[in-house]
Write a structure and sequence with these properties.
Length: 158
């Protein structure tokens, strides 16, 4: 019975393991959304890979912010535009820049190597996920320790 209690403690909403688990789930969900948009735009509609990546990332950022803020870090109430929304979008923009460079490089390489179809789409998706994966750990730490850090209310001494 003791191991069950330990698991409950680790997965508790305020424990870092619980937040890490939920944050990974949000990342998987929004990555599936973004990769679906990226693959459909690039593969089915012939949109340039870097443009498709920008659209896909933009469409995934809103749900990522909302789910991270409310479900992972249990923040309620209105978002603060300068302390929460802007920094989150800056982090997302950094991921966008890195992933767009990676996608554009892989797109160029696959075209010059005459690689098409599913293999090309898989290579582009891998570049996207790899770039965001590099930033994921840093983003989790920043969200947990800075952006959505629990700050106890200070009461004036009276």
């Amino acid at each position: 019975m003791q191991w069950r209690d330990r698991w409950r403690e680790l997965l508790h909403p305020t424990h870092v393991v619980g937040k890490l688990t939920r944050s990974m789930a949000v990342s998987v969900l929004t990555t599936v959304l973004s990769l679906t948009v990226l693959t459909v735009l690039d593969g089915a509609f012939g949109v340039k890979a870097w443009v498709a990546n920008v659209v896909a990332t933009a469409l995934g950022t809103g749900p990522s912010y909302a789910l991270n803020r409310r479900w992972v870090w249990r923040r309620t109430g209105s978002s603060h535009p300068w302390r929460e929304v802007l920094p989150f979008w800056v982090l997302s923009f950094a991921g966008l820049v890195l992933s767009t460079i990676a996608v554009a490089l892989v797109d160029h390489w696959t075209r010059s190597a005459d690689i098409h179809g599913a293999v090309r789409s898989l290579a582009i998706a891998t570049a996207n996920v790899g770039a965001f994966g590099l930033l994921w750990v840093a983003q989790f730490v920043l969200l947990d320790r800075v952006l959505f850090a629990h700050k106890p209310h200070r009461h004036p001494e009276g």
